[in-house]
């Protein structure tokens, strides 16, 4: 009897300890979630209402001037914002230049100089206003510029939440595993986007940014030619005529590192739902694009956006708002307002 009593007491103690551990773990998770959301909670559409009330007008003017010079700045700025938010959070760390910076790693090596110049100009325009000087972060300027290039290219105009601080660190080490690869399948894409609080629908909507811009041959050449001995990878079916066109652009082992093809060859200078229509025709340039139509789980959303541009625009605006909250810096210990966007203070 005594041994049974001891065993029962031991079991009760073990259960109590397990329950306590579960409660402690739950509290830790809640605290971590609260910490992650704290920065995003400070964001507000009227954040600069008293300190720099015309910030949106100033940024929009810089965007307009740059796009009149070159349309390349439009897709480049949108890509710059996406890369920034996915690598270290939306903190303009992607703009920092110097030894070992993010520009020198992987896909960031092809970030548009025109986009970088646009942000530099917008920052100068904002700081030239005495009320705004050194009061607006580069991260917020980038978020506004991303919205404005979309709008001026024919896409939706949406409200942007503001109040981000600029990060103090920008290293190439953070780039490698943070961005989606050109050969990703649906599961890989969903996993990466989910890690940033984004759903499959968000991912498909944000992929619609590929309605503008280009990709270098290195990102899709494996789709064009069989590589003996290469590891198997996702390669959704491609329209035969489109395949022949791309082989002319990127001849095997003879293409220039600078050679590119349009992500949406039909309306490459317009933000519309044409990207999804090209996927229906099996003319997605990147394997990660065509995978959205090839996979039965994501195809209905592609078809919906292809048929209904308003639905795409609404979903894109909602996804951009969520993207803009990723990894927001909220305190002076990890954030600041940079005087120059390309270097920390």
Automatic annotation (TrEMBL):
Belongs to the peroxidase family. Classical plant (class III) peroxidase subfamily. InterPro entries: Haem_peroxidase, Haem_peroxidase_sf, Peroxidase_pln, Peroxidases_AS, Peroxidases_heam-ligand_BS, Secretory_peroxidase. The gene is LOC100834997. It comes from Brachypodium distachyon (Purple false brome). Heme b binds at residue 210. The lineage of its organism: Eukaryota, Viridiplantae, Streptophyta, Embryophyta, Tracheophyta. This is Peroxidase. Residues 42-345 form the Plant heme peroxidase family profile domain. Ca(2+) 2 binds at residues 211, 264, 267, 272. CDD domains: secretory_peroxidase (cd00693). Substrate binds at residue 180. Its cofactor is heme b; Ca(2+). The record marks 79 as: Transition state stabilizer. Removal of H(2)O(2), oxidation of toxic reductants, biosynthesis and degradation of lignin, suberization, auxin catabolism, response to environmental stresses such as wounding, pathogen attack and oxidative stress.
């Amino acid at each position: 009897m005594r041994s049974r009593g001891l065993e029962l007491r031991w079991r009760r103690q073990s259960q109590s300890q397990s329950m306590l551990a579960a409660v402690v773990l739950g509290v830790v998770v809640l605290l971590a979630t609260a910490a992650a959301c704290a920065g995003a909670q400070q964001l507000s559409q009227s954040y600069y209402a008293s300190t720099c009330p015309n910030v949106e007008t100033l940024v929009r003017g810089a965007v307009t001037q740059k796009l009149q010079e070159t349309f390349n700045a439009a897709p480049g700025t949108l890509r710059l914002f996406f890369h920034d938010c996915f690598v270290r959070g939306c903190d303009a760390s992607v703009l920092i230049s110097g030894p070992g910076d993010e520009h020198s790693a992987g896909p960031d090596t092809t970030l548009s100089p025109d986009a970088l110049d646009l942000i530099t100009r917008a920052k100068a325009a904002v700081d030239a206003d005495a009320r705004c000087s050194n009061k607006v972060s580069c991260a917020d300027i980038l978020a506004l510029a991303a919205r404005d290039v979309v709008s001026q290219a024919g896409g939706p105009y949406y409200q942007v939440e503001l109040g981000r601080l600029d990060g103090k660190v920008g290293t190439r080490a953070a780039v490698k595993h943070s961005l989606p690869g050109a050969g990703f399948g649906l599961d890989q894409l969903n996993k990466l986007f989910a890690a940033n609080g984004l759903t499959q629908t968000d991912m498909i909507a944000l992929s619609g940014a590929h309605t503008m811009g280009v990709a270098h041959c290195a990102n899709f050449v494996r789709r064009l030619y069989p590589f003996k001995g290469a590891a198997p990878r996702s390669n959704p079916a491609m329209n035969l005529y489109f395949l022949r066109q791309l082989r002319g652009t990127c001849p095997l082992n003879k293409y220039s590192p600078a050679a590119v093809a349009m992500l949406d060859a039909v309306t490459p200078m317009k933000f519309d739902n044409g990207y999804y229509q090209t996927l229906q025709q099996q003319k997605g340039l990147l394997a990660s694009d065509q995978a959205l139509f090839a996979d039965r789980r994501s195809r209905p959303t592609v078809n919906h956006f292809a048929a209904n541009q308003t639905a795409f625009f609404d979903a894109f605006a909602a996804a951009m708002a969520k993207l803009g909250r990723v990894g927001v810096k909220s305190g002076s210990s990890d954030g600041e307002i940079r005087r120059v966007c390309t270097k920390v203070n």
